[in-house]
Design a protein that fits this description.
By secondary structure, the chain is of the alpha+beta class. It is 34% helix and 35% strand.
């Protein structure tokens, strides 16, 4: 996690925001798309459509949805559970990055920051999404499951860009995770898969 956390801190510094303090988990996922930066940005920046393409439950604003013009209250499904949160308006550096933080009143997370970064790579675009999270005890106890659930949700967001680009097979391109080189996480994920193997038809 140290390498991913250091990369996230450097990215936050580039955006002019403070490091995310006290993270129990840092998960990153990257994918390259055969599309120009402006096109990928236009899809990834439309968060309502992105979430819908990812199969995620829509954010539900709570009245009053805005408390001071910069903060909103809403409900969202994260790691499989609904929770109410407060969020500051996102920080955007178009078309290269945006980030937002949410602080939860309940659920498995105390708070998280989601950071998107985009860069031209040849004729395509490299997208990286990073989740930094402070977790409540129940999520920390099940850390291998919590991490894998978070990885799947980041993969779903990357797949949603594929959908926006009109891909016939979203997720076909390779996805790189920070956990790929973490042997402890690999072992834990193997145990989870062994005990929760898909049913054979």
């Amino acid at each position: 996690m140290a390498t991913a956390a250091a990369a996230a801190t450097a990215a936050a510094s580039d955006l002019g925001i403070a490091p995310f303090e006290g993270a129990h988990m840092v998960v990153q996922a990257e994918r390259t798309y055969a599309a120009p930066l402006a096109r990928v940005w236009s899809i990834a920046g439309d968060t309502d459509t992105l979430n819908r393409n990812a199969g995620m439950a829509p954010v539900e604003l709570e009245p009053p949805s805005r408390t001071d013009g910069l903060t909103l209250r809403a409900r969202v499904k994260m790691l499989g559970l609904w929770a109410t949160y407060e969020a500051r308006m996102p920080l955007v550096r178009a078309p290269y990055a945006y980030a937002f933080e949410r602080r939860f009143e309940g659920g498995p997370m105390e708070a998280y920051r989601l950071l998107w970064q985009f860069a031209e790579e040849g004729e395509g675009t490299r997208a990286k999404v990073t989740l930094e999270a402070r977790l409540r005890a129940v999520a920390r106890l099940g850390m291998p499951f919590t991490r894998r659930t978070a990885e799947r949700e980041l993969e779903s967001l990357l797949d949603a860009i594929d959908v926006g680009l009109g891909a016939t097979n979203p997720g076909a391109a390779a996805t790189t995770h920070n956990a790929a080189s973490d042997e402890r996480i690999q072992r834990a994920t193997f145990v989870l898969r062994r005990h929760h193997a898909p049913a054979r038809s």
